[in-house]
Request: fold
Amino acid sequence: MNKFIGIGRLTKDPEIVANSQGLSYCRFTIAIDNSYVKDGEKVEQADFINCLAWNKLAENLSVYQKKGKLIAVEGRLHPYSYDKEDGTKGYSYDVICNNIEFLESKRKDSRPEPEYEGDIEQKEETDPFADFGANVQIDDDYLE
Reply:
Protein backbone atom coordinates (compact mmCIF):
# COMPACT_ATOMS: atom_id res chain seq x y z
CA MET A 1 0.00 0.00 0.00
CA ASN A 2 1.34 3.44 -0.94
CA LYS A 3 -0.52 6.11 1.01
CA PHE A 4 0.57 9.38 2.59
CA ILE A 5 -1.50 11.63 4.86
CA GLY A 6 0.04 14.73 6.39
CA ILE A 7 -0.93 18.05 7.94
CA GLY A 8 1.34 21.03 7.52
CA ARG A 9 1.68 24.68 6.57
CA LEU A 10 2.35 25.93 3.05
CA THR A 11 5.90 27.26 2.77
CA LYS A 12 5.01 29.71 -0.04
CA ASP A 13 2.02 30.86 -2.08
CA PRO A 14 0.93 28.02 -4.41
CA GLU A 15 1.31 28.89 -8.10
CA ILE A 16 -0.46 27.06 -10.88
CA VAL A 17 1.30 26.32 -14.17
CA ALA A 18 0.51 24.26 -17.29
CA ASN A 19 2.59 21.43 -18.67
CA SER A 20 3.33 20.79 -22.38
CA GLN A 21 -0.01 18.94 -22.76
CA GLY A 22 -1.94 21.90 -21.31
CA LEU A 23 -2.74 20.21 -18.00
CA SER A 24 -2.59 22.50 -14.98
CA TYR A 25 -0.54 21.51 -11.95
CA CYS A 26 0.89 23.01 -8.79
CA ARG A 27 4.09 22.01 -7.02
CA PHE A 28 4.17 23.06 -3.38
CA THR A 29 5.85 22.21 -0.10
CA ILE A 30 4.31 21.80 3.32
CA ALA A 31 6.20 22.10 6.60
CA ILE A 32 5.10 19.48 9.12
CA ASP A 33 5.90 20.24 12.76
CA ASN A 34 8.25 17.62 14.19
CA SER A 35 9.27 19.36 17.43
CA TYR A 36 10.35 17.35 20.44
CA VAL A 37 11.63 17.82 23.99
CA LYS A 38 15.25 16.96 24.81
CA ASP A 39 16.71 17.45 28.30
CA GLY A 40 13.65 19.51 29.26
CA GLU A 41 14.08 21.93 26.34
CA LYS A 42 11.81 22.06 23.33
CA VAL A 43 13.67 21.56 20.06
CA GLU A 44 11.85 23.20 17.12
CA GLN A 45 12.06 21.10 14.00
CA ALA A 46 10.04 20.67 10.80
CA ASP A 47 9.91 18.16 7.97
CA PHE A 48 9.46 19.64 4.50
CA ILE A 49 7.31 17.54 2.18
CA ASN A 50 7.19 18.18 -1.58
CA CYS A 51 3.72 17.79 -3.07
CA LEU A 52 2.13 17.86 -6.51
CA ALA A 53 -1.54 18.56 -7.31
CA TRP A 54 -3.20 18.37 -10.75
CA ASN A 55 -6.10 20.07 -12.53
CA LYS A 56 -9.01 21.35 -10.39
CA LEU A 57 -7.27 20.38 -7.14
CA ALA A 58 -4.29 22.52 -8.14
CA GLU A 59 -6.53 25.40 -9.26
CA ASN A 60 -8.47 25.45 -5.98
CA LEU A 61 -5.26 25.35 -3.95
CA SER A 62 -3.76 28.31 -5.82
CA VAL A 63 -6.96 30.37 -5.56
CA TYR A 64 -7.93 29.76 -1.94
CA GLN A 65 -4.68 29.17 -0.03
CA LYS A 66 -1.60 31.26 0.75
CA LYS A 67 1.76 30.85 2.47
CA GLY A 68 1.42 29.78 6.10
CA LYS A 69 -2.07 28.27 5.79
CA LEU A 70 -2.63 24.88 7.41
CA ILE A 71 -3.71 22.13 5.00
CA ALA A 72 -4.05 18.35 5.02
CA VAL A 73 -2.82 16.39 2.02
CA GLU A 74 -3.62 12.82 1.07
CA GLY A 75 -1.97 10.97 -1.75
CA ARG A 76 0.74 8.55 -2.77
CA LEU A 77 4.52 8.79 -2.70
CA HIS A 78 6.14 9.03 -6.12
CA PRO A 79 9.92 8.54 -6.34
CA TYR A 80 12.00 10.32 -8.96
CA SER A 81 15.65 10.84 -9.76
CA TYR A 82 17.55 13.85 -11.04
CA ASP A 83 21.11 14.83 -11.95
CA LYS A 84 22.93 16.90 -9.35
CA GLU A 85 25.35 19.69 -10.23
CA ASP A 86 28.31 17.49 -9.27
CA GLY A 87 27.23 14.85 -11.84
CA THR A 88 25.83 12.32 -9.35
CA LYS A 89 22.25 11.10 -9.23
CA GLY A 90 19.90 12.52 -6.63
CA TYR A 91 16.71 10.83 -5.46
CA SER A 92 13.61 12.34 -3.94
CA TYR A 93 9.89 11.86 -3.44
CA ASP A 94 6.78 13.88 -4.23
CA VAL A 95 3.36 13.32 -2.72
CA ILE A 96 0.95 13.08 -5.66
CA CYS A 97 -2.19 14.53 -4.03
CA ASN A 98 -5.62 13.08 -4.61
CA ASN A 99 -7.22 15.09 -1.80
CA ILE A 100 -6.39 18.39 -0.10
CA GLU A 101 -8.37 19.78 2.81
CA PHE A 102 -8.15 23.42 3.83
CA LEU A 103 -7.96 23.50 7.62
CA GLU A 104 -8.06 27.27 7.99
CA SER A 105 -10.84 29.21 6.32
CA LYS A 106 -10.19 32.15 4.05
CA ARG A 107 -11.57 35.44 5.35
CA LYS A 108 -14.80 36.31 3.56
CA ASP A 109 -14.13 40.00 3.80
CA SER A 110 -10.78 41.58 3.02
CA ARG A 111 -11.57 44.76 4.96
CA PRO A 112 -9.80 45.18 8.30
CA GLU A 113 -11.65 44.32 11.48
CA PRO A 114 -13.57 47.36 12.77
CA GLU A 115 -12.41 49.03 15.98
CA TYR A 116 -14.83 50.06 18.71
CA GLU A 117 -14.63 53.79 19.32
CA GLY A 118 -17.21 54.03 22.11
CA ASP A 119 -19.69 56.15 20.16
CA ILE A 120 -22.34 53.46 19.77
CA GLU A 121 -25.18 54.01 22.25
CA GLN A 122 -25.68 51.02 24.53
CA LYS A 123 -29.24 50.31 25.63
CA GLU A 124 -29.81 49.19 29.18
CA GLU A 125 -31.19 45.67 29.34
CA THR A 126 -34.61 45.34 30.89
CA ASP A 127 -36.28 42.26 32.27
CA PRO A 128 -39.01 41.27 29.75
CA PHE A 129 -40.91 39.43 32.50
CA ALA A 130 -40.85 42.23 35.10
CA ASP A 131 -44.57 43.00 34.60
CA PHE A 132 -45.60 39.50 35.72
CA GLY A 133 -45.07 40.06 39.44
CA ALA A 134 -42.86 38.26 41.96
CA ASN A 135 -39.86 36.17 41.03
CA VAL A 136 -40.42 32.45 40.54
CA GLN A 137 -37.87 30.09 42.02
CA ILE A 138 -37.45 26.68 40.40
CA ASP A 139 -35.14 24.13 41.90
CA ASP A 140 -34.20 20.62 40.85
CA ASP A 141 -36.86 19.04 43.11
CA TYR A 142 -39.57 20.91 41.19
CA LEU A 143 -38.45 19.37 37.90
CA GLU A 144 -38.83 15.75 39.06
